């Protein structure tokens, strides 16, 4: 059963990691997919190739999500190519680990601009297109377990993920009358480029895995199913919700 048959799905930050897994998962479930990326030309090209190998149409659009104009351009190019936007996945994000007391202003502001401001304008642009189309839609934000717990070297990052979680709750209310559902996924520790340096220490990696009831750190494709579900009509009465995808880490804090 293909859960996204005939739909057009857009994913930001999809040249690697969770975004790439979500994009390819959407194609596996019958969607045409448009991906946003900022720098990794080769990664974006190979993601589109995988989408097309699954028999779906794929398109990559380069752009820095911290610039509000990127959101308008991304949506416009997707509509020009495939005619509509049925589901939008906001995934693009950064986490340059740094201590709190000497956090550089630019590091803080760049993280805010990419993770939170970028998400706001991307979601707004996608929602406007969905309202214009008149047949509803689904928006899924990739938040984080960091929306719920702190991190010593993530004082600039965790507020952005809490903000994404909150944004989905508020947009669920604002957009419900248009048939647009807004939900978030909250991944735990997923092995992606965003944390590869932090997890290069194998002892630390093993300690973190040992705290997870399912006994391992996450992989990007662990998010594929939850995101596809929330984007699909199987979740037609789910909005304003958040889904932890963390192997049980959050409930094992004692």
Automatic annotation (TrEMBL):
Residue span, Ketoreductase domain: 7-181
Residues of the signal peptide: none
The protein, known as: 2-dehydro-3-deoxy-D-gluconate 5-dehydrogenase KduD
Keyword Membrane: no
UniProt key word Oxidoreductase: yes
Pfam families: adh_short_C2
NCBIfam families reported for this sequence: PRK07231.1 (NF005559)
Species for this entry: Sphingomonas cynarae
Gene3D superfamilies the record matches: NAD(P)-binding Rossmann-like Domain
Family: Belongs to the short-chain dehydrogenases/reductases (SDR) family.
Alphabetic keyword roster: Oxidoreductase
InterPro entries recorded: KR_dom (IPR057326), NAD(P)-bd_dom_sf (IPR036291), SDR_fam (IPR002347)
